[in-house]
Structures are given as C-alpha cells and as structure tokens.
Amino acid sequence: MESIRTFIAIELTEPLRRALATAQARLQRDHATRAIRWVAPENIHITLKFLGDVDAAQMPTLQRAIADVCAAIPPFALTLGGVGAFPNTRKPSVVWIGARGQIEIAARLAQKIDDACAALGFAREARAFTPHLTLGRVKRDASPNERQLIGALIEQTQIGDFGELRVERVSVMKSELKPGGSVYARLAMCQLTNEPMNQ
To answer: What is the pLDDT of residue 198?
Structure first.
C-alpha cells in the first residue's frame, strides 16, 4: 500500500519568503553558520502537525477531518520576526524566526488538528505548539565550539519584523525526501471560516 509522508502547515506568501531569504543571507555571512543546514526559502512554513507516513487510502478521511477543523476556526494574523534557537542558544539545534500576534488562535487551531488526527489513530504531539519558522538545523556533527559560536551569533543578531501573515487557509502537505533535500507539494487546501472574530 502506498504511503505519503504528510504534514499540516500554514504556507507563507512570496514577499515573506523573500524576506526570510534575506535574513538567512545575513546569518550565512558568519563562518560559524557553515555548521547549519539551511532550509530552502520556498520550503519554509509554520508546521501545525507532522504526521509522517500516511496510508494513501486514508488521505481523503484525513483531509475531511482537517477541513472540518478549519471550518470552525476564524482567520487570524501573525507577525513574523526575531530570531532564536531550540532548545536554547547554549546548545542550538534549530534556528528559528518567531511569530506573535493572535497566537492563541494559532494554538487552538493546532490543538484541534491534533485532536482530529488522534481520533484517526495518529500519535498526539508531545510538545506544546510554538508557532515558528525553521530557518536551518545545526548539523549533527557540529562541534560544541561551533554550537557555542552559532548561539552567540543568534543572541547578537537583531532581526526585526518581516511583516504580517494573514492566515486564511491550512495546507495538507506531502514531503518527498530527495538527494538534494526534501521537496514539498500541496495535497489539499482547507479554508478557515469567514465568520467574524468574536471580540
């Protein structure tokens, strides 16, 4: 049976992707960042849920479940900006750009998606949802000294706001692992409801 490596995401606009590419270029000027595997700007997104391999026969049911969740969540806005690292800048593994704004709606959306996926037999998320954009991942073989330099660079780098992301839809995405890195394709797009926000 065919399986599809699947995740649920909020995609970015082209202007935001260009701004992220500029931020990456700024960071890449520092020699310490040679120990980082950078995410291609066209692949940068906000992950709501990573599912891993999904049976192709289950995809229509999954897509319906995500569409049902989205129909009950209003559109919202996030402001993207600032740079940080997971788990922290002392031992950085992931370099990220942050998000603020209507975080509580984003968190509710992620939680409802997690609930819907759990009802279909997928594992629940172990960590609380933190909306972010992954700019790059520190290579596994990076030395402690390289990690220290990357952490110091992140702490010293001032990255302002890139702009606002108006979230009106959620994408069900396919990920294919290729020799040159992951290639993503949208399988379905689910619209958030157009009902006005409750103030």
So the answer is: 44
Considering the chain, what is the average pLDDT of its residues?
93
- Residue 119's H or E segment, with its range, is helix 103-119
Q: Which of 45, 49, 112, 147 is catalytic?
A: 45
Tokens of 165: 């992301």
Dihedral angle of Cα 13, 87, 106, 175, to the nearest 10 degrees: 50
Alpha-carbon span 41 to 32, nearest angstrom: 20
Residue 45 annotated among the catalytic residues of the structure? yes
- Mark residue 98 as left, alpha or beta (left: phi above 0; alpha: psi -120 to 50; beta: remaining): beta
Contact assessment for residue 81 and residue 162, using Cβ atoms and an 8 Å cutoff: yes
State the architecture of 3-191 in CATH terms: Alpha-Beta Complex (3.90)
pTM exceeds cut of 0.85? yes
Examine the residue annotation and report whether 31 is marked as an active-site residue of this protein: no
Tokens 């996030």, located at residue: 78
